[in-house]
Design brief:
This protein starts with a helix and ends with a helix. It has 25 helices and eight strands. The protein is extended, with a radius of gyration of 43 Å. It is of the alpha+beta class and about 800 residues long. One of its GO terms (molecular function) is mechanosensitive monoatomic ion channel activity.
């Protein structure tokens, strides 16, 4: 039987490229599967669009931050579902396209016609492909709309928060603050009673006869995990650290971090068991579920407060305490972390209930005021208590650790914040007081966690790359490393870890929040107040000016810290040449300042098309007054990159010689032999002839020329000079010293002896010492040196003899 050309080609391509052989049966299966899935995809997209429309309607009716927060979470879940759907549809789309590629393009008019089966297959694939493309495009459009809605919800929350901060709800000393309206209380009491009934029903269901023993067992297990289990795990980790971790700070930092993490994980596990205990009998109602989710987050937040406080004070192991703190002060502060955690848990629970039942403004303000007042009083007591304990110890004559500057700054900030919170409550800004109280706690937690993580990562890197530990010895043996290589790796990995933790800390401080607040909202409010019409010519507004100042300050601080790290930690362990290190640090500094200026100008909002007149003025100034400055700046960059002259070199220019101490942007500092400093513009080091005495490991040449009478024994003098050079320690053996017969004249015999030293800087002192030694040896051998008077006399006598000969000849 003769096969038709198209099936033959398809058969060959399927063998060569591994493609499935397209027949009527092989194409019909995926096409049918796609056609069957089309109704499901269409139904899913309709449901997603309906959910999006429902969220939009609820957003227009929402009037509390908790409602907006739940709607934002709903948009995030909807976006994730749409992304998952798009991911599932892409393989189907690619499969259909592959089937169409196997069939190839439609035949041109006039060529051999396709069979009816192939035409039917192509049409079916094209139809399915078009439907799939439309479904993906629609899914992407709904996903984009969902993302836009989420951004709008965030904007609404931000605006609502700014309004809430600026709202004066009355002083906590006023009667209106303590007596909300009656009809609001009645409505809220009904809602609260309904919620309590739901909680009561959940409780009763869990204690039914069939669930009673399981509930009791799970609650006892949760209590055991939180108390005894946490204690056992901490003791076990302490034993492991003593047994397996190397001696040093790693054990202490590991246990401090482990204490905080164990407290957090124990709370997480105990709370999960409690939720399972009361939800297994009957699922939670929506209100109870919302309360359960919020209480879980609140419990973890409070456990983190308690865990970090226990790790910071380290009362069970005072010798393992990381910060420098006296035991008496630590014992006196022991109750504050759990007290703060308990207060946050109690009043956070009240706020959760208010959010769940949709409490009115009066009740919410009352709760926020009480929370803020108690938190402020507690924060006010902490530094006062610490100061009191220190004072008592000083009066008793007990030696105490000196308070660090950072510790003193922290105490002052806590005092000031507590006073500001109380003052805000007195004048009626309850929302602002509540925001400041919780944000102070959040910032303290983030900074404390950052402190523990930085110390732990630093100690961990030091232990891993130490030549005294097992890991360090293994790296040396496996990779043939030296001690300096391990030290370089330790510095690099420590820097990477610190930078990563610093970025995480910044993200946590910016994005972290508690309740309805965000840490950057106050700054945004200040920026909003300061924003005006701006300087239209340069497009500068006060908010951009504030951002530019912040960028400039942070940039300069980061640049200085990085320069200090490069010059004192990394480069000394990596590059031995001082000049190269100084050049790299200076070049990095110059590039860093240029980048900081560019970032600052970008944050300032300057439009470069409005700076044409400035550029024109600068071009004229560069052509005249700034020409030398620009030339020296470019010359400085050339010196730093090509390095014909670097820090530490001994150079000579313009008849002076000295050591290069610093290469600045405009000029180079050269220290002369008398310790004075000569400032040389960088352009002169590029354009003039410069002698670099130490470039390329140059050696110093010590040459001494002496004049002797003509009646000496040259060989004896030669041996004396060579012996003096060879006996001197600084004279190198290679190249060997040598003596040359420089001149024989009327004034006598001139012999010069030459030797080499390791550096040109040693020439002066070596020459002086050798002259002392040579003169002593010559006197011991009774060899005289022609004195200046004898030389002059011999010159004069020779001249007279010449004159007499000329007269006689004439």
């Amino acid at each position: 039987m003769i096969m038709k050309p198209l099936p033959i080609l398809l058969f060959i391509f399927s063998i060569l490229f591994g493609l499935p052989l397209v027949t009527h049966t092989s194409v019909a299966a995926p096409v049918a599967a796609v056609e069957d899935s089309q109704p499901d995809v269409a139904t899913a997209l309709k449901n997603y669009q309906k959910q999006l429309d429902t969220i939009k309607q609820q957003v227009s009716k929402a009037n509390t931050d908790s409602q907006l927060s739940k709607l934002f979470d709903a948009t995030q879940m909807l976006g994730a579902d749409l992304g998952k759907l798009i991911t599932e549809l892409h393989p189907v789309q690619e499969k259909l396209q592959a089937q169409l590629d196997v069939l190839g393009p439609e035949p041109a008019p006039g060529s051999m016609a396709e069979t009816a089966a192939v035409v039917k297959q192509r049409n079916a694939l094209n139809s399915s492909k078009k439907q799939m493309d439309d479904a993906i495009k629609r899914s992407q459009a709904i996903k984009a709309s969902t993302a836009d809605l989420g951004q709008q919800i965030n904007d609404l929350r931000r605006v609502a928060f700014k309004t809430q901060l600026a709202l004066n709800t009355g002083s906590i000393l006023s009667s209106d603050f303590w007596s909300p309206k009656t009809y609001m209380q009645t409505e809220e009491l009904d809602q609260f009673s309904a919620f309590i009934q739901q909680l009561q029903q959940t409780w009763d269901n869990s204690w039914q006869e069939s669930w009673r023993y399981g509930t009791l067992g799970l609650l006892m297990l949760a209590a055991t995990i939180w108390s005894l289990g946490r204690y056992i795990v901490e003791r076990f980790l302490a034993w492991l650290s003593i047994r397996y971790l190397p001696d040093g700070r790693l054990r202490r930092s590991f246990m401090a971090l482990a204490t905080a993490m164990i407290t957090l994980f124990a709370a997480k596990l105990a709370l999960n068991l409690i939720v399972i205990t009361f939800s297994r009998a009957q699922p939670f109602t929506p209100q109870v579920q919302d309360f359960s989710n919020g209480f879980m987050q609140l419990g973890l937040f409070c456990a983190l407060i308690a865990g970090l406080g226990r790790a910071y004070l380290s009362l069970s192991r005072p010798s393992w305490r990381l910060p420098q703190m006296d035991d008496a002060i630590a014992s006196g502060m022991r109750y504050f972390p759990p007290l703060i955690a308990v207060l946050a848990l109690a009043f956070g629970t009240v706020e959760l209930i208010n959010n769940v039942i949709g409490a009115g403004l009066g009740t919410t303000v009352l709760g926020n005021g009480l929370v803020s007042a108690l938190m402020a009083l507690l924060l006010l007591v902490i530094p006062v208590r610490a100061h009191y304990i220190r004072r008592q110890l000083e009066l008793s004559g007990t030696h105490i650790e000196k308070r660090s500057t950072l510790n003193g700054v922290a105490h002052i900030l806590i005092l000031v914040s507590a006073v500001v919170i109380l003052f805000s409550l007195l004048i009626g800004y309850v929302a602002f007081a509540r925001f400041l109280a919780y944000q102070l706690i959040w910032i303290a937690l983030v900074l404390m966690a950052f402190y523990f993580l930085v110390i732990f990562t630093t100690d961990l890197c030091a232990a891993i790359f130490s030549s005294q530990t097992t890991s360090g010895r293994a790296l040396k043996k496996t990779l043939n490393f030296k001690d300096r290589h391990l030290e370089q790796l330790m510095i690099i990995f420590t820097a990477i870890a610190k930078c990563s933790l610093l970025l995480l800390m910044i993200v946590a401080l910016i994005n972290g929040s508690f309740g309805t607040t965000t840490p950057n909202s106050l700054i945004e409010k200040i920026i909003t107040i300061l924003s005006g019409e701006g300087l239209k010519r340069l497009n500068i507004v006060p908010s951009n000016l504030l951002n530019a100042v912040i960028c400039l300050m942070i940039g300069i601080y980061i640049l200085r810290v990085t320069k200090r790290w490069l010059s004192h930690e990394l480069l000394p362990k990596t590059i031995s040449d001082i000049g190269i290190r100084a050049s790299l640090v200076t070049l990095f500094s110059n590039v860093g300042y240029v980048l900081i200026i560019l970032i600052t100008l970008a944050a300032l909002g300057i439009q470069w098309n409005n700076l044409a007149w400035i550029v024109s003025a600068l071009s004229v100034g560069i052509g005249f007054g700034l020409q030398e400055i620009v030339k020296n700046f470019i010359s400085g960059l050339i010196l730093l990159t090509e390095r014909p002259v670097k820090v530490g070199d001994m150079i000579g220019i313009g008849g002076v010689e000295g050591d290069v101490r610093r290469i600045n942007v405009r000029a180079t500092e050269i220290q002369l032999s008398d310790r004075s400093t000569m400032i040389v513009p960088n352009s002169q080091l590029i354009s003039q002839n410069v002698r670099n005495a130490t470039m390329g490991n140059a050696q110093g040449v010590v040459t001494i020329a002496l004049t002797f009478p003509t009646d000496i024994d040259p060989e004896l003098v030669r041996n004396i000079l060579l012996s003096a050079y060879r006996a001197y320690d600084s004279i190198l053996e290679t190249p060997a010293p040598y003596v040359r017969f420089s001149q024989l004249g009327p004034e006598g015999i001139i012999l010069s002896v030459t030797g080499y030293v390791a550096s040109p800087r040693m020439v002066g002192s070596t020459k002086s010492d050798l002259l002392f030694s040579i003169l002593k040896s010559l006197r011991e051998q009774r060899v005289n040196i022609s004195s200046p008077k004898e030389v002059v006399f011999m010159k004069q006598r020779a001249k007279n003899l010449v004159d007499e000969e000329e007269e006689h000849s004439s």
